[in-house]
Amino acid sequence: MNNTLKLIIAIAIPLLIGSTSAFFTVTGVDSWYQTINKPSWNPPNYIFGPVWTTLYILMGVSLFLVWKSGTNAGTKRQAMILYAIQLVLNFFWSFIFFDQHLVGTAFAEIVVMWLFILLTIFAFARISKTAAWLLVPYISWVSFAAFLNYTIWQLNK
Questions:
Q1: Which among 17, 44, 48, 56 has the fewest CB atoms less than 10 Å away?
Q2: pLDDT attached to residue 103
Q3: Does pLDDT of 151 surpass 90?
Q4: Which of 124, 135, 137, 114 is nearest to 67 (CA)?
Q5: Rounded CA gap, 72 and 85, in Å?
Q6: Residue 42 near residue 148 (C-beta atoms within 8 A)
Q7: What percentage of the chain has pLDDT greater than the value 70?
Q8: How many beta carbons lie within 10 A of that of residue 129, not counting itself?
């Protein structure tokens, strides 16, 4: 498979997962989320779409750099499995938080997701430093999202 096709697939994967999970987010934001207590520093809703789209593209480029690398198959497979796990956790956070309204469970889940993102960064760094650095904005945003999730949970007990 040529690198152009790998790049397209690598970017399409997180964008597809993100757009699928966005269904839960949009449904929740337009209803239940409007009624709960949020901190004064909660970003406006219009910020989330562009931020997540950018992060998913960076995640895709990061995956591409690992996928196209000449690193041995075992190291690459391990890194890509960690990437897949954190991406699945990313998907389920939206479902748990926005669809199921389980804010405390969503917080526990985002902490696990954060750990898998960190493990992915370390695994990617063994293959491509650039790929690892491309995930830093993602873990930074998830750190913020975890703090926001925790605060919303505490405000709505």
A1: 44
A2: 97
A3: yes
A4: 124
A5: 20
A6: yes
A7: 100
A8: 11
pTM here is 0.94
In single-letter form, the type of residue at position 74 comes to: G
Distance CA 94, CA 78 (A): 25
CA distance 83 to 11: 13
For the chain, the first-to-last Cα distance in angstroms comes to 51
Question: How confident is the model over 28-45, as a mean pLDDT?
Answer: 89
What is the radius of gyration, based on Cα positions, of the chain?
16
Pick left, alpha or beta for residue 36 (phi over 0 → left; psi -120 to 50 → alpha; otherwise beta): beta
Query: What domains are defined for the chain?
Result: 3-30+44-155 (1.20.1260.100)
- Contact between 55 and 136 under an 8 Å Cβ cutoff? The reply is no
Which single residue is written with the structure tokens 């690198």?
3
Rounded average pLDDT over 14-32: 85
How far is CA 14 from each of CA 8, 35, 50, 72, 126, rounded to the nearest angstrom?
11, 30, 14, 24, 21
Say whether pLDDT at 26 is over 90. no
pLDDT per residue as tens digits for the range 59-105: 999 999 999 999 999 999 999 999 999 999 999 999 999 999 999 99
